[in-house]
Write a structure and sequence with these properties.
The chain has 439 residues and is an alpha+beta fold. It has a single domain, classed as Anthranilate synthase (4-Layer Sandwich). 29% of the residues lie in helices and 33% in strands. It has 10 helices and 23 strands. The strands form 2 sheets. Strands 1, 2, 3, 5, 8, 9, 10, 11, 12, 13, 19, 22 and 23 form a 13-stranded mixed β-sheet that branches. Strands 4, 6, 7, 14, 15, 16, 17, 18, 20 and 21 form a 10-stranded antiparallel β-sheet that branches. Strand 14 and strand 15 form a beta hairpin. It is globular, with a radius of gyration of 21 Å. It binds ligand ISJ. The ligand C=C(O[C@@H]1C=C(C(=O)O)C=C[C@H]1O)C(=O)O binds next to strand 11, strand 15 and strand 23.
């Protein structure tokens, strides 16, 4: 039973962090959701909810709504992300043992549209004051466990090593071949198959450094850090602000290294190879269809790009489409983020179509518990606003020296196992680079 929460939100002087939010990423245990200079960073833990199973989203939704209805909230800033917030990460599969979780931090620093704020959240008695909140933030920033463990000069003296996870590369390619054979029977149109690799970092994983690197380099992505799950995702499952919901659907990938040596501008090459490919466009169409069909019952109006655009990341190009919906009131309420996630997850971008057939094949062929990989990751506030990405291009820090990285690919009728394997390596690259491992 969590006690009643009390929260205080005050404006924060922008001068204190001229480089924006990433400059607060100084502890390995930081909770993080950032894109460019904006987002939320959390410290400490005032409350936590965990769940497994098919009802994990709705159980979390109920827990959060009870918590915030009871909460005593003083908010001097009032924008999405102020007041009490929870960071969360959910297991991909309803059958996973991995615990889905919502974590309410003790201190939150937020930045949005150039405005910064500080929220203190407590379940204890005692007065909340601006001076107290500033002092608590200072306390978290100064007791920096990452700095105590990692010394830059020794950071790479013992090289990190990599090994395959659940399946060898050959076995994973066999799984892709088996997936293509299933698609050819007509049972399903698309299947997303993932694999894992394990990095051992003898000097210890510096999670704060990983997050800073990802945030600095992958500026189009949302950099996330929740309880050992870290990464930078380019894919937005659902972003809710008031009555407006937005999603960014991706499917269709091209390694930017493939353009090396090609004539002409790299982006023209991407247009030709990605937007000009029947296979890639088909894969993309399936992903858009799945999202819009699931979102429609919650929406009064919806619009999506007619044509996908090319999303340029440092490692890959993607075919991308943004979808925007005006949420409808159902029984007098706009649906919450977690209710929407319950309907949308898993999308065809990370599971396949039809969902049930693809899900069963994933369990049969991957030999992998995806854990939080490809599950929703993000935050929500008391007013129902939130941002939930799909936990891609990420990893789970399993021990101080062990990191498990995940990557997957959409498989359709024309997929080639070798090409899909190469695509997983391109998708591992952001995490490998931020761990200081070259590939
Ligand atoms: C499954 C992943 O990515 C998904 C698969 C894509 C594809 O197959 O083209 C593209 C973006 C994501 O929707 C991953 O990064 O692990």
């Amino acid at each position: 039973m969590t006690r009643t929460l009390r929260t205080l939100t005050v404006p924060l002087d922008g001068e204190s962090a001229p480089e924006g939010l990433p400059s607060y990423l100084v502890r390995d245990d930081v909770l993080c959701w950032t894109r460019r200079e904006a987002g939320l960073v959390g410290f400490g833990e005032a409350a936590r909810f965990t769940a497994t199973g098919p009802e994990r989203f709705l159980e979390a939704d109920i827990w959060w709504r009870h918590l915030v209805i009871e909460a005593d909230i003083t908010d001097h800033v009032e924008c999405p992300g102020t007041g009490p917030v929870a960071f969360g990460s959910f297991a991909f599969s309803k059958a996973s043992d991995h615990e889905s979780r919502l974590i309410v931090p003790e201190i939150v620093v937020g930045v949005r549209d150039g405005r910064a704020w500080l929220t203190q959240i407590t379940a204890d008695d005692g007065e909340l004051t601006e001076a107290g909140a500033v002092a608590a933030l200072k306390g978290w920033l100064e007791s920096d466990p990452a700095a105590a463990v990692v010394h830059p000069e020794v950071f790479h003296s013992t090289p990190a090593t990599l090994k395959t996870g659940s399946l060898s590369e050959e076995d994973w390619m066999d799984a892709v071949t088996a997936g293509v054979a299933e698609i050819r029977t007509g049972k399903l149109e698309k299947l997303v198959l993932a694999r894992d690799i394990v990095a051992t970092v003898p000097e210890g994983v510096n999670a704060a450094e990983v997050l800073r690197q990802l945030a600095g380099r992958y500026r189009e992505c949302w950099t996330y850090g929740v309880d050992g799950l870290v990464g930078a995702t380019p894919e937005m499952l659902i972003q809710v602000e008031g009555r407006t919901a937005q999603a960014r659907v991706l499917a269709g990938t091209l390694d930017r290294r493939d353009a090396v040596g090609e004539a002409g501008l790299p982006l023209d090459y991407a247009e030709r190879v990605l937007a000009g490919s029947e296979k890639q466009r088909h894969e993309h169409e399936i992903a858009i269809q799945s999202l819009t069909t699931q979102l429609a019952p919650f929406s009064e109006a919806m619009n999506a790009h007619d044509e996908p655009f090319i999303l340029e990341l440092p490692n890959v190009w993607h075919l991308a489409s943004d979808v925007k919906a005006e949420l409808a009131e159902v029984e007098g309420h706009v649906p919450t983020c977690l209710a929407l996630i319950n309907a949308l997850h898993p999308t065809a971008a990370v599971c396949g179509t039809p969902t049930q057939v693809a899900g069963a094949l994933i369990r049969q062929l991957e030999h992998l518990d995806r854990g939080p990989y490809a599950g929703p990751v993000g935050w929500l506030d008391a007013a129902g606003n939130g941002e939930w990405g799909i936990a891609l291009r990420g990893a789970v820090i399993e021990s101080p020296t062990t990191v498990r990285l995940y990557a997957g690919c959409g498989i359709v009728e024309g997929s080639q196992p070798e090409a899909e394997l190469a695509e997983t390596w391109a998708k591992f690259r952001p995490m490998l680079e931020s761990l200081g491992i070259s590939n």
